Amino acid sequence: MAGEAPELSAQERAGKAFPVSWDQFHRDCRALTWRLNEVGPFHAVIAITRGGLVPAAIVARELGVRIIDTVCIASYDHDKQGELQVLKGMSEAAMKLGGGTGKGLLIVDDLVDTGKTGRLVRDMLPDAHFATVYAKPKGRPLVDTFITEVSQDTWIFFPWDTALSYHPPLRDGAA
Ligand SMILES: O=P(O)(O)OC[C@H]1O[C@H](OP(=O)(O)OP(=O)(O)O)[C@H](O)[C@@H]1O
Ligand SMILES: [Mg+2]
Predict the structure, then answer these.
(1) Cα-to-centroid distance, 71 and ligand 2 (Å)
(2) Does residue 140 line the site of ligand 1, with CB under 6 A?
(3) 122 near 142, Cβ under 8 Å?
(4) Among all ligands shown, which has an atom nearest to the Cα of 110?
(5) What is the pLDDT of residues 71-101, one digit of tens each?
(6) Is 69 a pocket residue for ligand 1 (Cβ < 6 Å)?
(7) Per-residue pLDDT tens over the stretch 127-152
(8) How many CA atoms does the CB half-sphere of 102 hold within 13 Å?
(9) In 64-168, which residue ranges form alpha helices assigned H by DSSP?
(10) I need a surface site. Which of 15, 22, 115, 171 has the fewest CB within 10 A?
(11) Is the C-beta atom of 103 inside 6 A of ligand 1?
């Protein structure tokens, strides 16, 4: 409708930027593993794709877990959240390892934001341990273990989504 404000993307609503480098991400994943090592052992790691694949590989390597499965969920088209779509559920083998409820399984994702994705996986595997590297306040209650809390009005930029580029100086004309 004419005059109506355009819908803001989640990233525009978030406003602040929190860029994460590969080094920082690796360090944060290792810190997450230190905490998870106190909770395990785990039979298998379940990565929530795609963002959960990178931390899941690092965590599984540190914890010596070699069985890794995926739950493929999509909701954000770049930075706009739509309906959650489960594109692929867990394998029967991993489900069996978790006794049907996820007991002894470790679910890993890069972050929780609104918590919608987290809620869906918790409903699928109520007894699993759910870990993320970053957590925003709305999603935080759904996570068992995380490393860094980031405010709800911040957008996290992951290293696989970004590239180095020129940034002008803060002060006009200082370049
Ligand atoms: O707490 P929520 O508001 O549900 O958001 C968190 C989810 O959003 C992102 O995934 P996305 O759906 O963008 O897919 P991707 O992992 O393939 O990038 C992120 O990796 C989490 O899985
Ligand atoms: Mg994701």
Answers:
(1) 10
(2) no
(3) yes
(4) 1
(5) 999 887 766 777 888 999 999 999 999 999 9
(6) no
(7) 999 999 999 999 999 999 999 999 99
(8) 19
(9) 92-97, 116-124
(10) 171
(11) no
- Residue 14's pLDDT is what? 66
Pairing of the two strands 80-88 and 68-77: antiparallel
Is 48 annotated as ligand-binding?
Answer: no
* pLDDT 10s digits, 3-58: 566 776 777 776 799 999 999 999 999 999 999 999 989 999 999 999 999 999 99
CA distance 57 to 62: 9
Q: Verify whether residue 109 is a known catalytic residue.
A: yes
Q: At what angle do helices 53-63 and 22-37 cross, to 10 degrees?
A: 50
Note the ligand closest to the C-alpha atom of 121: 1
Domain ranges of the chain: 40-160
Best residue among 75, 79, 116 to mutate for probing ligand 1's pocket (most ligand atoms within 8 Å of CB) is 75
CATH 2.30.38.10 fits 40-160, yes or no: no
* pLDDT tens sequence across 149-174: 999 999 999 999 999 888 888 888 77
**Which residues keep their CB under 5 angstroms from ion ligand 2?**
51
